[in-house]
Amino acid sequence: MKSKSLPFPITSNQSFYEALGDWIGDVFYDILPEKGLELRDEQIFMAFQLEQAYKNKSVIFAEAGVGTGKTIAYLLYAVAYARYTGKPAIISCADETLIEQLVKPTGDIKKIEQMLDMEIDVRLAKSREQYLCLKKLDDADKRTEDEAIEDVYLQLPEFVYGAGSMSSFYPYGDRKEYPYLDDEQWQAVNYDSLQDCLSCDVRHRCGQTLHREYYRQAGDLIVCSHDFYMEHIWTKDSRIREGQLPLLPEASSVIFDEGHLLEYAAQKALTYKTSLQSMEKVLSKLSANDVREKTLHLIDSILELHDDWFSLISASADRSSERMKIRKTDQLIKTSAALKKSIDQLLEELVFESELYVIDEYDLKISEEYLETVLFSLKLLAEDDNAIIWLEESFDDERLVIMPRMVEEILREEVFSKKLPFIFSSATLSVDEDFTYLASSLGIDDYTSFTVESPYEYDEVMKISIYLENPDKTDTISKIVNQNDGGSLILFNNRDDQDLFRFTNIIEHKQLLFEGDEEISSLVEKFQEDAMSVFASLNLWEGLDVPGSSLKHVIVDSLPFPPDDPVFEAKRNHAADPLTEVDLPYMLLRLQQGVGRLIRSSADSGHISIFLSAEEEQWIPEINKILPVTPEIIVYD
């Protein structure tokens, strides 16, 4: 990494922070207005609040409405401080969509480069699942006749299999390079936890490895997702013990863009997972080696017992949400103990098998690591009453997920105890300017905060309608979309509602896009390019930035209350008043974000439609408090 010079001079009688403050003032009061940008009091106020967070190396919640220029404000500090300390700043975004929007040619980083005539060294560090796995691609290509998978294979650079020179290596394999794959196809060829990258024979030609080596050398900024940042935190110590580098280098500061979503990324990262099919895949590969008959019999016994174990899990699952709560029956505990005993025996046999050198080293390492994960999951299931356990179903597989404890404890110890500037940036971090819900969820005990409103005149550019007790909601949404003279975004709170709309809508003569049908940034690009298209989404309540006529109407299918699943049940169990401390703040924050998708520039205008069920009418007073304009109430008889 080559350190770059500061973007401002420091005189002999100045500290870094004094010179930084002078430069920030010059940028906002002189340079940016000269370049045609409007001087915004909200942006300047935010900038000087951020200076205190950097000076004190503390946590700050920077809640700034749409149009305040918050991204430019935090970028200026992040780059300057990175160059001062010689360590890159990490910008952690809610998802891959936000990452792409931050670094796009019309994004704020490019604007700063052009307006300040400076070159910013920014590199992307995406989640491992966002990269192609050569091992899985080989397997998938042998097992399927899917032309899309074959196209991925043909798209590989020549050096992957030794045909190109060593000097021709370059990063490849990013999910964005294969927009034609839907989510199910991508999961057949992308990285997953069953891959042992350290012992993989093609790791030095792997796209993920090449990307990692590249972003480590960033001089100014590393942009990653919340998922990847939390995976870095969760795996850092174990990677160091194994002689590996952590996923991310040491940072000068960390900015959480759309930071209210960090908790959910932490929940996803800090879990143990085992699936119905994974055990069969792992042990089938193992049994294909020249192992002893005793080991083969033990493998067959474990596979049979594992199937019985998953059958019991599935039978005891509450299927009222995507995260299905597991009821710990006596039979389930008994079968868990039997499975644990058999796996312990197999691990002992594998020690003996390894001494005979009859098992492929890669297969052996994968098997041992996976079996150790299953053992720990079995231990948590049987012995830890505080563990949060649920079942997930995806495509043709079932997966048991176990979270050992509440994430705020880990975040408090592993993240926010560090003496670093931690900046949370979003238009929605509080409920009625109260940051307690977010701070307590993340284990943050000491912080500063501020709120600045959006400079936009919402009364003049936005109309909101709330529909009550509508028996024909899908038909009404279809009519709204068909009558709209611009693009429409439909936000769903669960997959069942999205699937129902997919098969019952009556959208005429408009391109209809569904999240999951292609790589997400390619869908966003299609939506932005077609001003009459319709985008149905589960996850774009935040992060979508589509100014202009491509987004003229945001439709909220139902209030985004948290699901009735084991994770939120654990949060509710730790709250004195679960409704007001967990459910309602979550819903209001998410609804604010959804409403914020509409007006993205001073030239935008449009309509918001929110559908409420009869039991949700009671929340209209709370909803009114967080809406930028007074809604029209439409009641159906």
TrEMBL record:
> Any idea where the Helicase ATP-binding domain is?
29-303
- InterPro entries in the cross-refs: ATP-dep_Helicase_C, DinG/Rad3-like, Helic_SF1/SF2_ATP-bd_DinG/Rad3, P-loop_NTPase
GO molecular function (one): hydrolase activity, acting on acid anhydrides, in phosphorus-containing anhydrides
Asked whether the keyword Nucleotide-binding is assigned, the reply is yes
GO BP: any one term: nucleobase-containing compound metabolic process
Q: Name one Pfam family in it.
A: Helicase_C_2
Q: Report the sequence similarity comment from the record.
A: Belongs to the helicase family. DinG subfamily.
This one is known as ATP-dependent helicase
Q: Which organism is it from?
A: Jeotgalibacillus alimentarius
